[in-house]
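quick one: coenzyme A bound model?
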Amino acid sequence: MSEVYAGAVDKGLEGVIACTTAISSIVDAALCYRGYLIEDLAENSSFEETVYLLWNDHLPSKEEYTEFKNILRSELSLRSEQIELLKQIPVKDVHPMAWLRTAVSLLALWDKESQLDTPEAHQNIAIRLTAKMGTLVALFERLRQGKGYVAPNPEKSFAWNFLYMISGQERDDEIVKIFDTCLILHADHELNCSAFASRVTASSLSDIYSAVTSAIGALKGPLHGGANERVMRMLVDIKTVEKAKQWVDSALTNKEKIMGFGHRVYKNGDPRAKILRSMSESLCNKSGNDYYKMSKVIDDTVQTEKGLLPNVDFYSASVYYSMGIPLDLYTSIFTVSRVSGWLAHILEQYKNNRIYRPRGEWVGKTGLKYAPLSGR
Ligand code: COA
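yep, here:
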């Protein structure tokens, strides 16, 4: 007879502490990266500096920052043979996250260090992957528009380059700053679903590309990173501010989930949503669309009627829309930032590894005897 494992089932592992970590923490409604409050970093840091902080456990000195920025920026570009191969894979009617998952996996084939198990190789791959994630997303967008690759400018920041490579146009400083802040806000979030997926894969001592590819697959889902795209689709469907309340009422009556609300950990509000809300207000007003106003009606209604608060995905949708970013790219943009957090988790996992191997509680049949086909 099979072994029967009697243990408590925590569906979705709610409340389970699966590992120790010193990367980011959530305590009540406070999110910190390496001990620094997200509000402080969003206001004062840059994405490039935040990546350094996540990977090194301290803010860089001037010299460390300059060196790190330069290396990261020098890795932004894709090689011509990589671009040529990526041009061969389909882009039409393909979800950007599906393309990105494949593209990241393909990049591993060029990386001579991908199978090396040394801290130096891991660091080099982390820089390479983080630098190239934005370039890949931008290339995807260019290719599906029938346009060519835009080479990055290593004199400019990561955020500047992403916006430049996607459109071929230089964006003004204010938009670059807002986008940079979005990247900081999305960089890490404790043991979320995709970070956990990356750690599970890394825990078998598989390579970094495999772990990041696992994480991209996890982030793609609508209950995780895929929610921002769904939020924008909902806003577009609702069409006007006047229709927003009635739309939410009817969705709640039908027991539908409203995308961009609720959170497994935050019960008193997601601090990132507060920062994004004010960015959404100013950007939507400036670009003359009603999506902030509509979002506010939805927010107020869901809070009053369901007691749920917006998460990071709710107001980021109208922020990206107002910046002119195509709607189905929002989750890929999440990836452009979150890859830095996954890498911090993967490297932390390697340093203190034990393979993840939980148990499942058996609820199936037991004690069956095989009957030959002729006797069934
Ligand atoms: N809209 C409506 N009801 C929601 C809801 C939402 N966005 N989020 C949670 N609820 C309700 C559930 O229906 C459930 O109600 P019930 O007890 O009457 O069945 C209750 O709140 C608990 O939700 P549950 O799905 O069990 O919470 P979870 O911790 O497993 O999941 C999320 C957390 C984030 C996946 C969930 O809130 C959700 O699906 N949100 C929408 C997707 C989203 O925005 N994801 C991005 C997360 S950053």
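Strands lie at 24-27, 30-33, 36-37.
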